[in-house]
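In this section we walk through a basic example: taking a raw amino acid sequence and producing a predicted 3D structure, encoded as discrete structure tokens. The instruction is simple. Fold the sequence below.
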Amino acid sequence: MTTVLISGASVAGPALAWWLRRHGFRPTVVERAPALREGGYKVDIRGAALEVIDRMGLRGQVERHDTGMSAARFVDSTGAQLATMDAALFGGREGDDAEIMRGDLARILADATPDVEYVFDDSIATLTPSADGVEVSFERGPRRTFDLVVGADGLHSNVRRVAFGPESVHLRPLGHHIAIFTVPAEFGEERIELMHPAPGRTVGVYRTAGSPDARALFLFPSPEGGAEHRDVAGRKALLAEAFAGAGWQVPRLLDAMWDAPDFYLDSMSQVRMDRWSTGRIALVGDAAYGPSPASGQGTSLGLVGAYVLATSLAAAPGDPVAGLADYERRMRPFVEANQRLAERNLKGMVLGSAAQIRFQTLMLRLMPHLPGRERIIRRVTEPIRRAATAITLPDTPTPRRA
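The resulting token sequence is shown next.
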């Protein structure tokens, strides 16, 4: 039985493990964190990714964990409402598109793989490829040998660094940083996304249906230098400096930040690589082609990539190199289409001047009354829909369960 080590237990990793088990492989998932990472932020599942969820039989579970967001409300520095819009339109969703918290999706996928070995609180230290496998040494556990190794370990992929070189070669910064963390429920309104645009900076707070707390989101131009991505205290100080003097709820949100258990801050960057595999080592999801949060398609790319990778490997039994080549051939046009969304979306997420903010809020107020409103909405959502469906999923080979 073909053994596969997967690094990363967020979304792409467990999804890949599910499909590999279905095809008779024996996957092991190693995760640096001591347990599944709960919480996180809202993520979208659209187009081809929703079809993958359907083929896994998980649509019902995803729908039961829908965020239930109803509206986005734009406010000024005093909290006065500037404009409002439907939550689905704000998120670029239409039809059956789903929105779910990342932690909920990760839990659904992990629970769907009870026959998969998960190793928490450990990480890959070295990879030594051979003609018929990869010897892996871990930071804590004993050495093991696998037929294949797949990095599904995110933007700062450890597997990518070990097998493909320093991440500076593969990351393409988009000029902005993003921060997300949990804050008390009092900061938000249930099922409402509160957005405060300011020149060059955007702050948001949302509370999903039934959630006991809220999430704060900050977008701002990337600073010079900055703390290393695992230096949490340094990154909190960086955010506090970037939003010093800001209005609305920002001072209180920054006070709450210091006690946030799940603080995240990083650059909005894309992963651009000429190849996603070398020998018997491969990458999937953000580790291979992270489109950045600005695209809104990172989760969908991870789900589709996991399906295509597993299907391609299953269709080439005994020849993993051929399977990996087929995976890249099928996925690359889809990846490129979705990565192109990021810069377009980012222009609307962070506005550069007060005049641009006034124009945007004016258009949002006028939208319900404009002739041809539906045509305007389709123009907004069409690029996202086109990118989300820019792949024909391969048929699933006959399952070979052990």
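Looking at the output, two observations stand out. Residues 3-67+99-170+270-343 form a domain with the FAD/NAD(P)-binding domain fold (CATH 3.50.50.60). The mean pLDDT is 93. In the next section we compare this with other chains.
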